[in-house]
Amino acid sequence: MAAGGLSRSERKAAERVRRLREEQQRERLRQVSRILRKAAAERSAEEGRLLAESEDLVTELQGRSRRREGLKRRQEEASSAARPLRPGPLAWWGGRGGLTTAASRQVCDDPELLQRKVRELAGAVRNAKYLVVYTGAGISTAASIPDYRGPNGVWTLLQKGRSIRAADLSEAEPTLTHMSITRLYEQKLVQHVVSQNCDGLHLRSGLPRTAISELHGNMYIEVCTACTPNREYVRVFDVTERTALHRHQTGRACHKCGAQLRDTIVHFGERGTLGQPLNWEAATQAASKADTILCLGSSLKVLKKYPRLWCMTKPPSRRPKLYIVNLQWTPKDDWAALKLHGKCDDVMRLLMDELGLEIPPYSRWQDPIFSLATPLRAGEEGSHSRKSLCRSQEEPPLGDRGTPLSSAPALGGWFGRGCTKRTKRKKVL
């Protein structure tokens, strides 16, 4: 026997014990796997006790199952097994970065399958104790606002070497999905909304400021950071015309202290530090309380990087159930209790019908932005050239000097330079 070591017979005995334990563990894994394949009603009391005593194995097997299903689903999507959608004028700032062909492919559940999934989603909404909604660019495409990762999205076009053009956002109005979320909040079925969108349509749909966390800012809000607390100015026009990545001054001054105002947009590569309208504190609190999360129209490629929104410090069994509505693959699909491949408006129309709730129509006369807005002071009318919102087609926007932007290349603001910063410029010889 070597000094301080085990004898040969002792090493063999220890190896036999180790192999025996491994075999027992494999047998336990097989038993738990067989039980999990049964419906809950078909399991005996003894099998129920075995599952309760094997919580780690149950979690491991359920994780394997989700990964297998996710891989199978992605293979089906990549091979066009699901029905492909014709490219259209779709969504926009749900995230930033590169695209892959498989990930950017749009697929749609057939009507019968979608209806079944919506029925299951409706049950989850009814039973949720604390439901939080995460929204991305896909909920605004019905308002003709372009996205980032869709077939005609900003990043897609830039990667193809094509120019992007600005949209006249003064014509955009809250969509059926925006209004549905507002009604669900009024009915206390939704407790909080966390949005990546900068278009301000959640605010304009009637959601209270306290119920929204606009993580990437709001194009209608500029703030004075010299005032304590920060002083907000809600406008009826896009305040980001002169702003860009790392350059946020809007060219207007605070009515109180005279300091330069800045926009609230968080561009790619920046860290949001403003309290409002980002409202990170409320978003984090809502995520920690949530037992159900509904993701609408987001690629989740940016949101996945915020651990606070996914309760990653909790064990998997105690994290919120996740429901995703998106036409494309997302990095959270494997963790979802249910994935619905459909347009947000189509899904929300079916959901509201299933819940027996009427979707309120949007009315410009009742748009909260007009009561929240601070008018420009004398001499500030020429501080922007963006078209202002007005309550009706006949009403001339006060101090509006703008022209429609649909035919002009996107140059400034959160939709302009924040995107074009990433394009490579050719060297001039």
From TrEMBL:
Task: Provide ranges: composition bias, Basic and acidic residues.
Answer: 8-27
What keywords tag this UniProt record? DNA damage, DNA repair, Metal-binding, NAD, Phosphoprotein, Transferase, Zinc
- Respond yes or no to whether keyword Transferase is given for this record: yes
Q: Where is it found, in Gene Ontology cellular component terms? A: chromatin; nucleus; site of double-strand break
Swiss-Prot/TrEMBL GO biological process terms: DNA repair; DNA repair-dependent chromatin remodeling; epigenetic regulation of gene expression; regulation of mitochondrion organization
What InterPro entries does this protein's entry cite? DHS-like_NAD/FAD-binding_dom, NAD-dep_sirtuin_deacylases, Sirtuin, Ssirtuin_cat_dom
Q: Which Gene3D superfamilies match?
A: 2.20.28.200, TPP-binding domain
Q: Which CDD domains match?
A: SIRT7
What are the boundaries of the region Disordered? 1-27, 62-89, 381-407
Domain (Deacetylase sirtuin-type): residue spans on this chain: 111-358
Q: Which reaction does it catalyse?
A: N(6)-propanoyl-L-lysyl-[protein] + NAD(+) + H2O = 3''-O-propanoyl-ADP-D-ribose + nicotinamide + L-lysyl-[protein]; N(6)-decanoyl-L-lysyl-[protein] + NAD(+) + H2O = 2''-O-decanoyl-ADP-D-ribose + nicotinamide + L-lysyl-[protein]; N(6)-acetyl-L-lysyl-[protein] + NAD(+) + H2O = 2''-O-acetyl-ADP-D-ribose + nicotinamide + L-lysyl-[protein]; N(6)-succinyl-L-lysyl-[protein] + NAD(+) + H2O = 2''-O-succinyl-ADP-D-ribose + nicotinamide + L-lysyl-[protein]
Q: Where is the signal peptide?
A: none
Active site location: H216
Q: What are this entry's molecular-function GO terms? A: histone H3K18 deacetylase activity, NAD-dependent; metal ion binding; NAD+ binding
Assigned EC number: 2.3.1.286
Which Pfam families does the UniProt record give? SIR2
* Entry cofactors: Zn(2+)
Q: Which PROSITE patterns match?
A: SIRTUIN (PS50305)
Question: Which residues take part in binding Zn(2+)?
Answer: C224, C227, C254, C257
Is S-adenosyl-L-methionine among the key words of this record?
A: no
Q: What PANTHER family does the entry give?
A: NAD-DEPENDENT PROTEIN DEACETYLASE SIRTUIN-7, NAD-DEPENDENT PROTEIN DEACYLASE SIRTUIN-5, MITOCHONDRIAL-RELATED
Query: Self-association or partners: how does it assemble?
Result: Interacts with UBTF and the RNA polymerase I complex. Interacts with components of the B-WICH complex, such as MYBBP1A, SMARCA5/SNF2H and BAZ1B/WSTF. Interacts with ELK4, leading to stabilization at target promoters for H3K18Ac deacetylation. Interacts with histone H2A and/or histone H2B. Interacts with DNMT1. Interacts with SIRT1.
What family is reported? Belongs to the sirtuin family. Class IV subfamily.
Q: What is this protein called?
A: NAD-dependent protein deacetylase sirtuin-7
